[in-house]
Amino acid sequence: MGSTMGGVRTISLSHNGGPEVLTLVEVDTPEPGPGQVRVRVEAAGVNFIDVYHREGAYPLPLPFTPGQEGAGVVDAIGEGVTSFQPGDRVCWAMSGGSYAEYVLVDEAQLAPIPDHIDTPTAAAAMLQGLTAHYLVTSVYPVEKGSVAIVHAVAGGVGLLLTQMIKARGGVVIGTTSSDEKAERAKCFGADHVIRYDKGNWAKQVEEIVGPHGVDVVYDGVGNDTFNEGLGLLRPRGTMALFGASSGQVPPVDLQRLSVLGSLNVTRPSLGHFISDPEEFTWRVGELFQSISDESLTISIAKTFDLADAAEAHRAIQSRQYSGKILLTT
Q1: Which of 51, 73, 243, 255 is the most exposed place for a label (fewest CB within 10 A)?
Q2: Peptide bond before residue 63 is cis, with ω within 30 degrees of 0
Q3: Which residues of the chain have pLDDT under 70?
Q4: What is the CATH number of domain 7-127+271-328?
Q5: pLDDT of residue 7
Q6: What does the alpha-carbon distance between residue 31 and residue 257 come to, in Å, rounded to a whole number?
Q7: Which burial class, exposed, middle or buried, applies to 44 when counting CB atoms under 10 A from its CB (0-12, 13-18, 19+)?
Q8: What is the location of CATH 3.40.50.720 in the chain?
Q9: What is the pLDDT of residues 265-282, one digit of tens each?
């Protein structure tokens, strides 16, 4: 057991709303229960799921501390914990309360950070990296010649998806909103990048691969892109809707999927792809290996102090940043 006493800084919100509801408070240092590990947080990732939680689109019981991923140093362990000891560097994803100086995480949800990977990189890699990994390995297994649309291609998940698709021999058609982001996506391997704010992006995709020429659409944007994406898929192609940064997709007429070619549509969530300990270990292992061998670059766009969580949320919602946004304690 460790022994850190006194008040610690934590971001809390008592009601849903805009970034301004994120409030810095001081709370007692949490004590780990059986099977739990207390981690001194060094960096926490800022993700769109945090925005959804803050706004109430994905409701959580109030009050709560946002944050689903991070990295830091083990500070104390609860009864029965055998995999970690105080001083170990660890990281996690899909475990709440990360916008804080200290967080309690179940032992099974923690992964050790390899010595050659720094803590901010580990924090930035977990949620988005594991998301990209399950999308290209399990939701639609990309192989040589697969043609994929990646929306928000210069965003955190988009840049990781692009690199993983290219590593598997696929073709990336990305969409983005500025010339600067387009150039960045190309630097990370995108074959074609379309400005969705200039003209009809779907017609531009057809000019590249022809009608019904796409194997998979990886769509984290949602409302603004979903319907057009369905029309670009080849028969039996896959629409992987994994986010909704532009708003939730309205209900879909399933008969349309038959008319368009027996399409597959899925709304996956990371938690269902890492709940099995062996699968979690495998995915984290492949993720860190790809970082180690430099086939995957983790891009950190901007770092904010924990106290500036509201500004960090404004930053991610502005879509002006390419890469990961972190909070540091």
Answers
A1: 255
A2: yes
A3: 1-6
A4: 3.90.180.10
A5: 85
A6: 50
A7: buried
A8: 144-266
A9: 999 999 999 999 999 999
Q: Token pair for residue 70?
A: 């991070």
Helix (H) / strand (E) element for 218: namely strand 214-219
| pTM score, whole prediction | 0.92
The predicted structure's pLDDT at residue 18: 98
Closest CA to 37 of 122, 93, 97, 110: 110
Distance of alpha carbon 316 from alpha carbon 41, whole angstroms:
21
323, 151, 17, 96: CA torsion to nearest 10: -60
CATH domain 144-266 topology: Rossmann fold (3.40.50)
Structure token digits, residue 186: 């190309």
β-pair type (171-176, 147-150) = parallel
| Under 8 Å between Cβ of 245 and 222 | yes
Task: Scan for tokens 């399950």, then name that residue.
Answer: 134
d(CA 175, CA 233): 16
Burial of 28 (0-12, 13-18, 19+ CB in 10 A): exposed
Q: Are 201 and 231 in contact (CB under 8 A)?
A: no
- Pair 188, 211: CB distance under 8 Å: no
CB 41 within 8 A of CB 72: yes
SS3 (DSSP) at 121: helix
pLDDT for 320? 80
- From the number of C-beta atoms within 10 Å of its C-beta (0-12, 13-18, 19+), residue 322 rates as buried
**Tokens found for residue 314:** 């404004």
- 20 phi and psi, to 5 degrees? -65, -15
CA distance 236 to 260: 9
For 262: left if phi > 0, alpha if psi spans -120 to 50, otherwise beta; the answer is: left
User: What is the rounded distance in angstroms from the CA atom of residue 175 to the CA atom of residue 79?
Assistant: 49
